[in-house]
Recover the amino acids of this structure.
């Protein structure tokens, strides 16, 4: 009976050692998983911090771009007003030139008519001269 108990005790010891080894292996596996998860968490935190910095930088850039856009919009409006003013001035000058040109053209036409009249008179005088020379 003692041998049986000793054998059973030995089997229990072996069984407990195996369970202890299994528990140790499980603990090591859990520790490895914990280390991996810790590394992932640290990496995720670093990534989140970088993304927060990048987001803050992008927010500043966005604000700067909005300010620049508004400045350009105001500048464009001012430029457009200047262009409109220049166009109005050019139109006024063009209308003045047209009016003066019309007056000059009228004077030229009147002068041309006067010249035509003089030419007609000179032709008439020429005919009188010819008639007078033939009629002597």
């Amino acid at each position: 009976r003692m041998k049986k108990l000793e054998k059973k005790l030995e089997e229990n010891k072996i069984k407990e050692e195996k369970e202890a080894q299994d528990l140790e292996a499980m603990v090591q596996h859990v520790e490895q998983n914990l280390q991996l998860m810790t590394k992932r968490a640290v990496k995720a935190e670093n990534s989140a911090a970088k993304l927060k910095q990048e987001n803050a930088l992008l927010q500043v850039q966005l604000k700067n771009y909005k300010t620049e856009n508004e400045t350009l919009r105001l500048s464009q409006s001012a430029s457009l007003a200047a262009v409109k003013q220049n166009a109005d001035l050019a139109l006024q000058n063009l209308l003045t030139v047209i009016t003066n040109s019309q007056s000059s053209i009228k004077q030229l036409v009147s002068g041309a008519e006067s010249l035509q009249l003089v030419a007609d008179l000179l032709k008439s005088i020429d005919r009188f001269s010819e008639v007078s020379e033939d009629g002597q």
Q: What stands out?
A: The chain has a mean pLDDT of 92. Residues 2-134 form the longest helix (133 residues). The CA atoms of residues 20 and 26 lie 10 Å apart. Helices lie at 2-134.
